[in-house]
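Tokenise the fold.
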Amino acid sequence: MVTVGSNVMAVRPHTEVHRCRSARSGGGRLGEDMRAGPDAEQAPCAHDHAPQAEVAGICHWQRWFWPCLVVVLVLDQLTKSWLFQQPIQAPYSASNPGSINGFPEWIERSFNTGVAWGVLHRWPLAVACLTLVLVPVLSVVWWRFFRLAGRIENIAFGAILGGALGNGIDRFQAICGMLHGVRDFIMVDLHPIGIKYIWPTFNIADAGISVGFVLLAAIAVGKPKPVLPDRHAHVLV
């Protein structure tokens, strides 16, 4: 509190503002700013905008991550439930439902107890335990390193985690004896384009996981490299 005659002038003891001003002017204007009084214009400091930037980042990731996760998860479970409720026709069986009469040829129902391309299909319990570990790990990685990164990163992780949860639901239902494995139904035959190969059947969850990782890979490849300062450069004062 500084008293001049009968006038009382309050000086705001805001050290962060003084530090920012001092850093911009080399410290010479600190005394002038304090003498200028409370009506003097105060230069903005990056510290003052930190809460607003954090709130904007939170709103940003919520707008893209959650809708993408929910869409992939719900669409995956709805399509599986609908298609696998359709009648099974000979020569197919409950463990291998096969195609559906009146549906496109690329709809081919099957169960997978392993991961992609049927890897680890003999150890469904190990695959379920692996899923139980990977989902929390991917969630932590997204939360710590990609949540505030940008729109595409949140869309990618929303698709990945939505797909992982969709297939995880199938795996644990299979362990409980409710299913024969993860429900797949999309078959891609590459013969029409001259490639003698039929892609292993997959589902919406698999597609979401694949698209998510492709987006992350594209971002990693296309991201510009940071320019490192020249260690041999000299600063002239």
Observations:
- Residues 1-36, 43-50 have pLDDT under 50 and may be disordered.
